[in-house]
Design goal:
- The structure is a single chain.
- With 281 residues, this protein is α/β, with parallel strands linked by helices.
- It has 2 domains: 189 residues, Rossmann fold (3-Layer(aba) Sandwich); 51 residues, 2-Layer Sandwich (Alpha-Beta Plaits), CATH 3.30.70.20.
- It contains 7 helices and 12 strands.
- Strands 1, 2, 4, 6, 7, 8 and 12 form a 7-stranded mixed sheet that branches.
- It starts with a strand and ends with a strand.
Length: 281
Amino acid sequence: MKLEKVTAVCFSPTGNAKKITNAIAQTIASREGIPFHEDDITLPYLRRGLREYSAGELVVFGTPVYAGRIPNKILPAVQTLFEGNGALAIPVVTFGNRSFDNGLIEVRNELEQHGFHTIAGAAFVSEHVMSAKLAGGRPNEGDFQAICQFALDAAAKIDALEEGPHDGMAQVPAPVAVKGEDPIPGYYRPLQADGSPANFLKAKPKTTDACTDCGICARACPMGSISPEDFRTVTGVCIKCQACVKLCPVGAKYFDDPVMLSHIRMLEDHYSRPAENEVFL
């Protein structure tokens, strides 16, 4: 089957999901000699307007998993902003060394339910946003080699699809088989270091006196929750994505919620081993 265009769609507060999604899409576009387009839906103003695709197009759709699934505050956008109309799709998730749980199968299902035909899928390890002790420095050179190889293998699978009357194919492919439970259960429930439940939903970033009022944190918040008038004030929902912490040029943002910190210690105690990338073709 001949592709006409590749689009990388990503939600990526700290950038790793975007790097990986774009690398896959760009590798396929380069191999096929077709246009590449980027559609970043990280910021609130970017999550507006229906995106419609068509047969002959490929969408590489990437997001980090939070608590083992699509971030719950982003799920409505995934469910309402995209219509495949017979386009092919590759669901991709990133995870911070613990597990991607049901994140990948959830992205696959949402794409299939909105008119896409999923042809391949992958879960790639990236540094945990809460601790550099968890997959620190990943994706690394070896990961990007695996990412590019996955892209080439996915492109070869697409090339092998026979042209025909059904969405440009002789036979519509079955949804790619990926790891996960279906129907999808609830979100992973985080634990503290002592094994007790960890509820830190109300935790919000704090700001030190080092803040220079540059405003980067407010512009980077995917929920638009940091006040543009007072960068020390969080006026809305915080999804703990750490974008404000990671992108602050003077390191003025931090979390000090004791339950959240205990959860991080639990992760460091139990999930410091190098996790493996997983691909599905």
